[in-house]
Amino acid sequence: MKTTTTFGAAAGALALLLALSGCAGPVAPDDASSSETPTAAASDEPTVEETDDGAAEEEPADEPVAEAPALDATERAAVIAALNAGRIDDIRPYLADPVNYILAASECCGLIAASEVAGASGYLSASSWSSPVPDAQLDAFRAGWYGDLIPADVVSAQAADGTIVIFGVADGLITSILIGDAVVFTS
């Protein structure tokens, strides 16, 4: 019984000590000759503030955020020109490596090396590509089975035979190639 009483008294004292330590507010120094270190002047360095739970939280310094590179209009036109000319290898400088290559309804191929796209792209050998696919049609495709594979930024074209290619663009490169037709994309 003596052990329980000693333990209970120690736990109670610890709880009281913890409760009281949070009650005392900051104490101002009695005189100007305090030995405390003066605070630093404002600078461009990130500041550290304490959160409600006592954890330190760093506030980043104001720095300009670089905008992600984009595939510009000239590069997008070069992609369509390469399609029309049947020179799929000419698209390679605009491809991420690897690129997500999907042939709709077959689920071929997934991530492939940029160097493999020309060999895998027999369906891109169609001729008379018109670009871009109208936004309303792209929105309808996004509501279909393959919607998750059609990002907001695309280079798209439709061939005379109905083949549609949608190049997904991110960070200035083509990161995905989705090939199919309107029937498959809206299913």
Automatic annotation (TrEMBL):
The biased composition feature labelled Low complexity covers: 27-45
Quick one: where's region Disordered?
A: 27-69
Q: Look up the domain of life of the source.
A: Bacteria
**Where is there biased composition of kind Acidic residues?**
46-65
According to the UniProt entry, where is the signal peptide? 1-24
Q: Which UniProt keywords apply?
A: Signal
What name does the UniProt record give this protein?
Uncharacterized protein
Organism of derivation: Protaetiibacter intestinalis
